[in-house]
Specification:
Bound molecules: NADP nicotinamide-adenine-dinucleotide phosphate
Order of helices and strands: EEEHEHEHEHEHEHEHHEHH
Number of domains: 1
Number of helices: 10
Strand order of the largest sheet: 3-4-5-6-7-8-9-10
Helix content: 25-40%
Length: 276
Amino acid sequence: MVEALSPLLPLNDGNRMPQLGLGVYKTTDDEAADAVDSALRQGYRLVDTAAMYLNEAGVGEGVRRSGLPREEVFVTTKVWFTDNGYDSTLRSFSESLDRLGLDYVDLYLIHWPAPKNDLYVPTWQALRTIRDEGRARSIGVANFHPAHVSRLIDETGEAPAVNQVELHPWLPQRELRAFDADHGIVTQAWSPLARGQLLDDGPIAAIARKHGKSPAQIILRWHIQLGIAVIPKSVTPARIRQNIEVFDFELDDDDLAVIASLESGMRTGVDPDDRN
Ligand SMILES: NC(=O)c1ccc[n+]([C@@H]2O[C@H](COP(=O)([O-])OP(=O)(O)OC[C@H]3O[C@@H](n4cnc5c(N)ncnc54)[C@H](OP(=O)(O)O)[C@@H]3O)[C@@H](O)[C@H]2O)c1
């Protein structure tokens, strides 16, 4: 068992979260169990799943198979937007815990605000209840624009601990990161590799050659140097290992300027305002 490799980021509720963890979107239960077990044995301590991924059972199995004590692993799951609403979120959360086979999760997120349904405020109230009951240690959101977060704060007086959004060199989310930082919210990047599409980018490959690293490592190191959290997905043990070996080198100002020039606003997913 390799020791924990990722630094921890402080959350606004006093808890701490590994800066880099494993994503498991688009994996079956069996693939997720193997990937989680492999990642935990290789020094990861955070796993990101969701009710919608249909692999929470596999994630729980992987955590148990690793043999790590429960308190050493940070498990995130999310309520899918069709379950937004107070009662439906409480019900969905209990089902997630059952599938995971855990007594609590470390972080529970609203997966999408689905603003046209206008149920994200009662969903947030349900997350606060779950947290107050001790069944989620921290609570947060995903895919929330600053306006959605502002409304949560205005109506409940509580800011999320984390906002998990699509974020990579094509979509660096400057304004959202500044807003999150101003409100003590940790930004966490999903699809950090743009689902693999960024890896063939010429300038990234050149920086990789300069540092003797892979393109994926260059991009993930960029996320780390932004000071945000990041959850690359891989089911391939060698890539899982490679993706967390990003704490032994630094990108310089020239590298950062090249990466900044790649911004195009391109998303791999939908704009949160359009998902209902
Ligand atoms: N909150 C949300 O709405 C939301 C949305 C999307 C994703 N997420 C979370 O964020 C996680 C990451 O996002 P993502 O899965 O969309 O995409 P991603 O992490 O940007 O990319 C994953 C893809 O890159 C490949 N890959 C990973 N490491 C690599 C490496 N070192 N070299 C070459 N290829 C590599 C993977 O292949 P293999 O697996 O075949 O190795 C996979 O095809 C998800 O798994 C999920 O947990 C959240």
